[in-house]
Design a protein that fits this description.
There is one protein chain. This protein is of the alpha+beta class and 113 residues long. The protein contains five helices and five strands; from the N terminus they run ααβββββααα. It has a domain of 43 residues. Helices cover 47% and strands 28% of the residues. α1 crosses α2.
């Protein structure tokens, strides 16, 4: 199962609306730019029935370099984005055929290469 790309989103909207692709590309890009700017400002992004993108702060911690396990490495505090699915998306995810998804998992593709 292939990933959904921005181009595929544009083509799907084009098929359903008939709007010029250039206009759709600009609208989709502006939407993504606005989401990105809000997250970069530390704001959460709530998209009703889809989900919430939350900015969370990961604490500083001590890690280890697997190549030099005796040396401790300080992993600095940083901001990360976490996604929480919304009500409608959760309901749709319950209907997924899990065997179909597992058959196309990225780990399996890496093993085949």
């Amino acid at each position: 199962m292939a990933n959904l790309t921005k181009r595929e989103i544009v083509l799907e909207i084009y098929k359903k609306t008939g709007f010029p692709q250039k206009q759709i590309v600009d609208t989709v890009q502006q939407t993504l730019d606005n989401i990105q700017a809000a997250l970069a400002d530390g704001r959460n992004v709530e998209l009703r029935n889809f989900g919430v993108l939350e900015v969370q702060v990961r604490k500083q911690r001590v890690g280890r370099n697997p190549n030099k396990p005796e040396a401790e490495v300080i992993i600095p505090q940083r901001a990360v984005v976490k996604f929480k699915s919304g009500k409608v998306l959760k309901q749709q995810l319950k209907k997924i055929d899990l065997a179909k998804i597992q058959a196309f998992s990225p780990a399996d593709e890496a093993d085949e290469a």
